[in-house]
Design brief:
Radius of gyration: 26 Å
Order of helices and strands: EEEHEEEEHHEEEH
Structural class: mainly beta
Strand order of the largest sheet: 1-2-5-6-9-10
Length: 213
């Protein structure tokens, strides 16, 4: 993990911008009990094997920027206005099967998918073919068309065809977050001592207040 930061500070003005790059991997992130550590860790084959993968809180990069300015007026008043901006991927996740492919007894939780290269690389059949209230009338060609479209629209899946997906390698889209802080200082002189009464106003996600998008 590497972090680079630039900042400037004066009696009235402060600004800072920092960029963090991360490539954190782990064998097991840990949890509340041993069973959940084993059950919830996505693996490509043997759940008992030590398999290196991206950590649960993997975030490849993050930008934090801050700026504030202090307005002093009269003898007893000062107002500070500050902004904090953050941009980073909104988490990471794993692509797993909806069944117990490796037969370890934890179906639908921890079996990483194989990403097919083409239609000849996978066997596709309609669901509910064994009877039921819903009949799937799609052909294998139609099912592949839907699956292929899904793979194409995902950068990670599309660039790793013919491979087994890695744990926590699917990085979510970037979120951008702007917060506002306004502080009002009132200075009070009592004898030889100077005291400050501070009133603070914070607006979380100020950007959404300006634009719903």
């Amino acid at each position: 993990m590497l972090t680079f930061q630039l900042q400037k500070s004066t009696p009235k003005f402060f600004d800072s911008i920092a960029y963090t790059y991360s490539n954190v991997k782990s064998l097991n992130d840990g949890g509340s009990i041993s069973a959940s550590n084993w059950r919830h860790r996505p693996v490509s084959n043997d759940p008992n094997a030590a398999e290196l993968g991206f950590a649960n809180f993997y975030q490849p990069y993050r930008v934090i920027a801050q700026a504030s300015y202090k307005f002093t007026y009269g003898k007893n008043y000062a107002t500070s206005v500050g902004f904090t901006f953050e941009a980073a991927p909104n988490g990471a996740g794993s692509c797993t099967y909806s069944g117990d492919v490796n037969n370890d007894g934890t179906g639908g939780i921890n079996d990483l998918i194989y990403i097919p290269k083409n239609q000849n690389d996978i066997v596709l059949v309609p669901v509910n073919t064994g009877g039921g209230t819903i009949s799937d009338t799609r052909t294998p060609v139609q099912i592949w068309g839907q699956l292929n479209n899904f793979i194409n629209q995902d950068d990670y899946l599309n660039s790793h065809r013919g491979q087994v997906a890695k744990r926590n390698a699917v990085v979510q889209p970037v979120f951008k977050h702007l917060d506002l802080n306004v502080m009002q200082d009132i200075y009070l002189q009592t004898g030889k001592s100077k005291h400050t009464l501070r009133i603070s106003f914070d607006m979380i996600n100020f950007g959404n207040f300006l634009n719903k998008n």
